[in-house]
Amino acid sequence: MPDFIYNNKIYYNPVEFAMDRIGGTWKMPILWRLKDHVLRYGEIKKSIPHITHKMLTSQLRELEAEGFVSRVVFPVVPPKVEYTITARGTKAITIVEVIRNYGLELMKDFGVPYEKIKTQKKMQS
Amino acid sequence: MPDFIYNNKIYYNPVEFAMDRIGGTWKMPILWRLKDHVLRYGEIKKSIPHITHKMLTSQLRELEAEGFVSRVVFPVVPPKVEYTITARGTKAITIVEVIRNYGLELMKDFGVPYEKIKTQKKMQS
DNA sequence: CTGCATCCGATAAGATACTG
DNA sequence: CAGTATCTTATCGGATGCAG
Fold it and tell me: Is B29 in contact with A15 (Cβ distance < 8 A)?
């Protein structure tokens, strides 16, 4: 007696559904980077520490397939691909921010040290 | 160059940290059930469709270990154990609600049918 | 009733190599 | 530069059995 099915997967509640779209280790960090920048693949890669090539590619594919980011391929050599956040992605950012702030509170609560609270203006190098 | 370490695990951002505490398939549904009820193990079990014995036990253990729920054992036969949400758990519920509402919006957005939008007043049978 | 341990299959994710 | 494919390991989670 599943609640609903989407993409051949059974879901039992809306939270699970939302988390499958924007959850996981990397999707939120990716959306976060695209918040107010259009970025190339390599730029995203450089800006997210420890993410592997495979993970970044697959997560971008999923985010694109579900309309959170859009992918523009420039037919040049060497290849150039830009990723832009969509309206749906921007909406998701709101949730990311809520969770992020909560995470910061929790960390404080748990006594976990964390420095870069300050918003990062410039993203890489 | 990890951002921080907690419980022998490396985290790279606050979102990941938060999701490790209250994320996953079952933690939010569990907290949700305890929102305004003190429940016994078996009651939680019955109220969450498809959750397995193993998963419920392990998730409750983690939630307890990190202070989101408290566990009271009554020294009777047969055993009786009650789970209560803590202040920290109540705070988490706020986030759960935000994510849940977002999930509902997303589902509408994706055209996923879902009936029981109405708040469930009574929980089981 | 509640909880723990064990086994095992499914899935996620890292490393690496190859392509246009 | 960006993307795909393969191989391999690690973790998650289901089923089951046993115990106080």
Answer: yes
